[in-house]
Q: What sequence folds into this?
């Protein structure tokens, strides 16, 4: 009976996370329209950073929480390492699969074309930024001098701020003020009592982010409960399962934008989150953990490179027009890792 209640709770949390993603994307789109921001800035920075907060908090809580609560610090470090590596792994495999699947379903329902016309400048730029930061983070696993690792962490943080500056400075095309968007949810509810739209936009963003952090936390705790029952290694469990909760916002934000043919927002939300994950959370992981990879960790790294290389080649070849089949194929790399983990358990 206890397992049934935990299963029901997970389903409820999943539904709440999905609805919270709708609230968040609605507020981000209205923010971009209100302040005339480019779609690359909205999808790649605002949405990507905002929805990345839960998985950024997980490694910090895992290590510092274990330290202050007097529990196993090494266990906390394993969870933190898995959370940091798991986020770009899930984004480059499962999240891209969800995006491609959304395109396929919407085309079947005649709601959009099956071609994804994303902005090639945004996509290629983000993937190149990610390639540099992710490679630096991976190579730092071979460094045994702590002071050098701290320097690498500082570099990754500064590198991300450079990425933000470049994104805000460049004109990448479509302006969010020209997009057709749904009215702000909070404004529709509170306009009779509080008609200040810009303030309501900020309040809706803050509300959705705070709710997102709490929901993701409880979802991860439920995943840990079942992982403990199944006796899965904490690092593997964290790498494979924890990001499912923390990366759901990116997955569903992209799916939501796909349904309304906002392809640049959808893809830049994922690629922008990839850049963020390879910089800020990676810097945290390098600083707070031994940052040494075992075989499962290295396999996840190889699969990340393989999936994104496939997407990058397709984008360059077709000038930004992505084939949804390529995105669906990215899910195959996630399946490979699942098969690998299952073999470990047998």
A:
């Amino acid at each position: 009976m206890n397992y049934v209640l935990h299963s029901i709770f997970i389903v409820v949390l999943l539904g709440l996370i999905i609805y919270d993603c709708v609230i968040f994307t609605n507020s981000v789109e209205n923010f971009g329209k209100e302040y005339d921001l480019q779609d690359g800035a909205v999808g790649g920075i605002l949405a990507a950073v905002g929805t990345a907060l839960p998985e950024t908090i997980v490694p910090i809580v895992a290590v510092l929480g274990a330290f202050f609560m007097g529990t196993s610090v090494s266990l906390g470090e394993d969870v933190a390492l898995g959370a940091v590596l798991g986020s770009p792994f899930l984004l480059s495999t499962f999240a891209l699969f969800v995006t491609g699947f959304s395109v396929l379903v919407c085309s079947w329902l005649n709601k959009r074309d099956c071609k994804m016309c994303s902005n090639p400048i945004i996509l290629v730029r983000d993937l190149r930024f990610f390639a540099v930061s992710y490679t630096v983070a991976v190579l730092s696993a071979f460094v045994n001098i702590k002071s050098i690792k701290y320097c690498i962490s500082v570099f990754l943080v500064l590198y991300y701020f450079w990425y933000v500056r470049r994104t805000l400075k460049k004109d990448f095309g479509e302006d969010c003020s020209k997009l057709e968007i749904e009215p702000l949810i909070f404004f529709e509810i509170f306009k009779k009592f509080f008609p200040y739209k810009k303030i309501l936009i900020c309040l809706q963003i803050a509300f959705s982010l705070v709710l997102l952090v709490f929901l993701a936390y409880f979802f991860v705790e439920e995943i840990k409960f079942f992982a403990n029952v199944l006796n899965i290694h904490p690092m593997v469990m964290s790498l494979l399962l924890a990001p499912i909760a923390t990366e759901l916002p990116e997955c569903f934000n992209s799916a939501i934008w796909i349904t309304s043919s906002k392809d640049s927002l959808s893809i830049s939300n994922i690629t922008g989150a990839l850049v963020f994950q390879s910089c800020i959370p990676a810097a945290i992981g390098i600083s707070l953990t031994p940052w040494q990879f075992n075989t499962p960790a290295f396999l996840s790294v190889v699969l990340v490179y393989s999936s994104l290389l496939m997407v990058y080649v397709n984008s360059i070849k077709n000038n930004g027009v992505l084939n949804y089949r390529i995105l669906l194929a990215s899910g195959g790399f996630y399946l490979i890792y699942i098969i690998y983990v299952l073999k470990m358990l047998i």
Summary: The longest helix spans residues 73-108. The longest strand covers residues 115-117. The chain has 13 helices and two strands.
